[in-house]
Structures are given as structure tokens and as C-alpha cells.
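B., you asked whether I could sanity-check this one before it goes into the benchmark set. Here's the sequence:
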Amino acid sequence: MRSDLPAENSCVFCQIINGDSFARWEKHATNQTDAVCFHNRLKWAKVMLLVVPAKHMTQGELWSSSTLMECAKLAVEMGDKHCSQYGYRVIANFGRKAHQSQIHAHLHVVSGISRQIKESTFKSNINKRNDLVTEEYSITETPFTARISSSTGTKQREMWSTELINTAAQEALKLSRQRSPDGYRLMASFDPSNNYVCAGSNPSELFFMGGGQLGLYI
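And here's what the prediction gave me:
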């Protein structure tokens, strides 16, 4: 996927991580840390956080690396801390068609569950392998949507805290090459907590959205 995003030498996230630009921090970089977290400057939702690899890399590099699991775990930790009662989404945008604005890899943690995902409908099976099922779904105003989920009943928060997220990532990257090389979005929705269960106790699922220009991710 070709990129017209800002170059690495002008990376805003690198400036923040290096202490050259202000951010409201949740987790700072250390010598032992592969992932950091700070608040998004956008105010589109009650809570908007950014989970970022400390080392500069692209979205594609993050989602094909071992660093993804640390970022995924931190996203769930921050979502639980700030959004448990509302539920939350973890979102990754790839390319301008998905409204990616920074080349440095990042996950959005946004309060509130996804209306798009709740209203999505099943269309057809795509494949099943490695304990994952990939199915085509329909979402309004999204040219192509696929749902990648566990075939073993894994919960959402468990998927994002184990190697399963890396396996799901590989399926998503394969879909991107086949169906949406010019840009796409990955999104997971974590249901709110209640008196009996933690946030994200809903079934595991990673939604792939692409095939053309996408709307904003809020």
C-alpha cells in the first residue's frame, strides 16, 4: 500500500515519545517498554486514547510483528481503566481511505461500543483455519466487510491478550492484499462491564472494513 502520509523525520508521535512535543500521558516509554499510551488531541468521544509502539514503525509492520501483542494488551488495559462502564473500541486505520493521518503505527482506544458492528449482518463464509473463522459481513456504506473470529468460543478480551491476536492479524493482512490494498480499517468492539463480567466478555471478533473510501471511525 503506497503512502502519502508524513515522513518519519516529521513524525508527531516520535516527537511525543522523545519528549519534544506535549502529550497527556497514560504510560511513558522506558527501556523495557515496546508500547506507550497517551491521550488523543481529538475530542470526538468521551475517551480517545492512542496506543503506540515506542519504536517508529508503520501500521503494516506493527500488525506483522510481535510488538502487536504488547500494544493489544495495553489497549485492553487502558480500555478497562477508562471505558469499562461504557464499553470501548480498538481501531487501526490503514491508509488515507481509512482516514489514517499519522504514519507511525497506532491503535485508537475509543469509548463506546461500535454501532456499525452491532448492526452488521452475515453474508457468507470465506474460510476457516488456525482456530479462526473468516466470514463476509455487510455494513452500511462499507464496500467490503469481513469478520475474523475464534472458532473456540474465546472472549474478546482474551483474544487481544494472547497469540490469537497475531493469528487474526495475519488473516487481516491477507485480506488486505486480496480485497483492499489501497486502505482499510480493523476494528474490535468490547462490550461494557456489569456486575458479573468484565468489559470485553463478548465473543472475540476483529472486523475488517475496506474496498473503498470509508467514513470516519467514530
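One thing to flag: The two ends are 24 Å apart (CA to CA). Otherwise nothing jumped out at me.
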